[in-house]
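Per your request, structure below.
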C-alpha cells in the first residue's frame, strides 16, 4: 500500500436501495477486509450493518463480495485485493439482502434441506455402531466434503444459481454427495430423487466457480459430477 488511506466503496443493499457509499479508511499493515468494514462501522458510520462471528475462518459468516469476488473477509488481506488503492465491498450475490452487507441465508439452507442434506438414520441405540472402512472409495468421497461450513461462498459464485433460482446449488449438492457415500446413511433413494429433479444436479454447467472459490479448498463440482453419474445409473436401472 502506498497511501495512508484506502478508498473503500460499500454497496449498501435493500434499505439503501443498492446505493454506493465511499469511505476513506486508514491503511495499516496486515489489515483484513473485515478490519476495514469494522473500522467503517465503528468510526465512520455506525448504521452500517454486516455479519461476522469468529474472525478466524471457522464460521464463514463474514462472507461478502470483494471487488466482485465472494470471499471470507476475515481471511482476506486488503493488500491482496486492492485495485490501485481502492476496493468495493458488497453483500453476497444470489441471496436476498436484508440490509447493507447482510444477506438472508434462508434460501441457501432451504436448498440444503431440499437436497435431503440431513442424516437418514435407521439404527437405534440398541444396534451396534455401523462399521466404517476409512480406506474405502466411498468413505474417501464422503470425507472429502465434510469440512463444508455452509458459508455460501460457492452459492454466491455460481452462475447457474444466478440464472436459475430453483437450482439447489453447490453446497447442498456437495452435502447430498457426502451422505450418498456415507455407510451410516440409509437415505440413498431419497437423496437420488431429491437431486435428480427440476432444480437438481443436472442443471450444473460444470463451470467450476464453486470449486475455484471455496475457501476450504473443497470440490463441489466433482461431487455434482458424481451425483450426475449416480442419478443416471439409477434411472437406467429402472427403465431396463
Amino acid at each position: 500500500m502506498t497511501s495512508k488511506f484506502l478508498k473503500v466503496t460499500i454497496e449498501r443493499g435493500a434499505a439503501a436501495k443498492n446505493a454506493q457509499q465511499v469511505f476513506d479508511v486508514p491503511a495499516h499493515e496486515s489489515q483484513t477486509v473485515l478490519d476495514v468494514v469494522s473500522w467503517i462501522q465503528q468510526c465512520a458510520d455506525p448504521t452500517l450493518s454486516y455479519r461476522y462471528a469468529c474472525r478466524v475462518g471457522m464460521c464463514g459468516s463474514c462472507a461478502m463480495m470483494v471487488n466482485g469476488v465472494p470471499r471470507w473477509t476475515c481471511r482476506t488481506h486488503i493488500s491482496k485485493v486492492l485495485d490501485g488503492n481502492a476496493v468495493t465491498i458488497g453483500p453476497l450475490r444470489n441471496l436476498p439482502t436484508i440490509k447493507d452487507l447482510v444477506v438472508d441465508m434462508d434460501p441457501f439452507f432451504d436448498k440444503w434441506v431440499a437436497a435431503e442434506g440431513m442424516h437418514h438414520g435407521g439404527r437405534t441405540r440398541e444396534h451396534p455402531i455401523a462399521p466404517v472402512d476409512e480406506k474405502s472409495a466411498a468413505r474417501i468421497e464422503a470425507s472429502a466434503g465434510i469440512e463444508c461450513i455452509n458459508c455460501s461462498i460457492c452459492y454466491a459464485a455460481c452462475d447457474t444459481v444466478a440464472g436459475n433460482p430453483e437450482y439447489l446449488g453447490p453446497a447442498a449438492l456437495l452435502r447430498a454427495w457426502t451422505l450418498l457415500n456415507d455407510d451410516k446413511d440409509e437415505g440413498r433413494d431419497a437423496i437420488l430423487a431429491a437431486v435428480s429433479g427440476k432444480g437438481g444436479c443436472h442443471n450444473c454447467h460444470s463451470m467450476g466457480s464453486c470449486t475455484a472459490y471455496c475457501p476450504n479448498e473443497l470440490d463441489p463440482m466433482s461431487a455434482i459430477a458424481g451425483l450426475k453419474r449416480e442419478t443416471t445409473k439409477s434411472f437406467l436401472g429402472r427403465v431396463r
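The domain at 5-103 is CATH 3.10.20.30 (Ubiquitin-like (UB roll)).

Regards,
D.
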